[in-house]
Specification:
The protein is α+β, with helices and mostly antiparallel strands and 157 residues long. The protein has one domain. The chain contains four helices and seven strands. A five-stranded antiparallel β-sheet has the order 6-4-1-5-7. It has a two-stranded antiparallel sheet with strand order 2-3. It starts with 11 loop residues before the first strand and ends with a strand.
Amino acid sequence: MISLPDLPVSPGTYALHLLVSRARLIGIGRLGQYRVPIGDYFYLGSARGAGGLRARVGRHLRGDGALHWHIDTLRAAAEVREVFYTVTDIPLECLWSQTLAQLPEAFIPVPHFGASDCRSGCGAHLVAFPRRADFAATLRFYRHFSSGQLSSSPAWG
């Protein structure tokens, strides 16, 4: 498991890589009920509040607390596999989600997920891939946008 002290308290943008190992029907607040198929999911978010990346990503990894964000509901039905993040004052989740959504095999499983207040025209801040998708393009994406500043940490022990 990622050690929370390893995550910076600085603001930044992050991507949670989650695995949905069996299809499920989940209720996602005002968005309603959705069937989420088996696959690899990437949730893109930013952490600009107190505690920065450590606080926000830590909450997602622990999976505790009241259901507040859309990701809280999906998190209960999926396993966090990896976390990518970069320290920045510039919110990059829209750029990341729009770019990921253009990759081969990508699909938006829940329209507007995590993007209720998005002003950039994102279909969602959640992008999914079939379970056996080729992640070479995904890794190239992260290297391209990280400019050498992106960190990746496995979320398992």
